[in-house]
Every structure is written in structure tokens, then in C-alpha cells.
Amino acid sequence: MKKIEAIIKPFKLDDLKEGLGELGITGMTISEVKGFGRQKGHTEIYRGAEYVVDFIPKIKVETVVKTEMVDMVIEKILSSVQTGSIGDGKIFVTPIDKVCRIRTGETDEDAI
User: Fold this and answer.
1) In angstroms, what CA-CA distances link 98 with 1, 17, 71, 109, 111?
2) What pLDDT, on the 0 to 100 scale, is given for residue 41?
3) Domain that holds residue 37
4) Residue 58's beta-bridge partner residues?
5) DSSP conformation class of 84
6) Domain of 101: which CATH number?
7) Number of domains in the chain
8) How many CB atoms lie under 10 A from the CB of residue 50?
9) What is the percentage of the chain residues whose pLDDT exceeds 70?
10) What's the 3-state SS for 13-79?
11) 3-class SS of residue 92
12) What does the pLDDT read at residue 80?
């Protein structure tokens, strides 16, 4: 099993949710996060004063899938959220050793 984390632009969340649903993935965790990479921050003007916005609002989507689905999920994420402009985000894949559903006690692939 693998955990896939995608950091995306907020307005692409619905597209990603729909795309992952097409693959049969219905379980995911969504977090509002802030950060920056190469995009860095930007300058804004508020009431005549200029200030720097260091951290850009993003959405982090996390899901756990069977190892054989990883490439399909990555391709679906790319096709769902990629705009081609700076700040599109990143995808991280990490191994998962154990999963346990608290309600039923199911483990591993039965729990996802």
C-alpha cells in the first residue's frame, strides 16, 4: 500500500475529486495548507500599504491506495489539476506498512 499526497491549487479540488472518483477512490483527507516553493510569495497592496504574502494557500489531498494503483492515480492527478503554470503543486508517494479501520478492526487492504 502507498500513501499519495498531492499539494494542489484550491480551485482544482473538485476536478481532482471527480477524477479520483472515476478510479473508484472515494476515501481521501483534505487539508487547507499554506506554503511556497519556486513560486515564492507575492506582494499585495491593502489600504494603500504594500505587504508580502510569503505563504500561498494550497490544498493537500491524501489517500491510501494499493501499490498497483499508484501510477494510475498519479496520472489522474496530473490530468485533473495540471495547468502548466507555476504553483501547480507536488505529488508525494510514501509506503504504508499497516492500516487498521478502528470501527471494524479490518486491517491493511481491507481497511482502505
Assistant:
1) 8, 25, 21, 9, 10
2) 63
3) 2-111
4) 33
5) S
6) 3.30.70.120
7) 1
8) 8
9) 92
10) HHHHHHHHHHCCCCCCEEEEEEECCCCCCEEEEECCEEEEECCEEEEEEEEEECHHHHHHHHHHHHH
11) strand
12) 95
pLDDT digits (tens, 9 = 90+) for 20-53: 999 999 899 999 998 877 766 666 667 777 767 7
**The residue to which cell 483527507 is assigned:** 29
Backbone angles phi, psi at 93, to 5 degrees: -125, 125
Q: Please report the pLDDT score of residue 50 as a whole number.
A: 72
From edge to edge, which strands make up the β-sheet containing 2-8?
Answer: 29-35, 56-65, 2-8, 90-95
Q: Partners of 65 in the beta sheet? A: 2
- At 8 the pLDDT is 96
Which element (helix H / strand E) includes 2?
strand 2-8
